[in-house]
Predict the structure.
Amino acid sequence: QENRGEAGLRALLRGKKGPRVIVVRGARGSGRSRLLRELTWQAELCCATVEGFARPGGGAIAAMLGRALGRVDPPSIADALAELTARGEPTVLVVDDAEALAEGDREALVALARGLPARGPLLLLASELDVEAPSLTDAGAGALLLAIGPLSEEAVRAWAIDLGVGEAAGAILRGSGGHAADVAEIAGRVLAGEASCAEGLAARRAQLAAAVARLIPLRSSPLSRSSARAEAPERRSPSAAARSSLGDRAKLAAA
């Protein structure tokens, strides 16, 4: 999916026809925001990039366009698009969690997506939840949808091996359902020895290592050896014991 997003960015930078609306869509914890951030970082290396943030009272899209234009009070969406297009400078507009926008901002974002020409210098990059509501990709002609689903078993296993908890990969997959955020959380708990998955292998290894670490100093300590000698009962050879017994009987006979 990231490669497809990168292809859209390259089309923008080269002025070629391509998607001018890229939407990363997925469930909570699927990794959609992570993918959006990675695409945003790539865009920042190549061209002007402006982000919009949801506001309880609205005005997020207008504020984003205002920053893109360098104005405090931006014009209408149509006028803003006309001015940015006339500048001819490749610009990426980014909106994460589009479903969190106020109703008026959501409508403004749809109008913005519809107004982007296929060969223009503007690209809208957004993320949204995979819900029943119409997707932003329905608004822009030729929009690119990057649908993020659960990770495959192979992907989860490779991730777990990289983290050093490969033996817990099956339990991590079952507990997370393949959702990236849950995979990261459960794997982190395994690393911390707090999870019970995979029969607590990571926790038991940590406990065993701690027990061995406590035992070794006790065995090697000079104080512990001298204490053991002091507390141990005196042991005498059989001949010494026999001599002592004969001496005691001689003393009793003399008495």
In short: The CA atoms of residues 225 and 231 lie 10 Å apart.
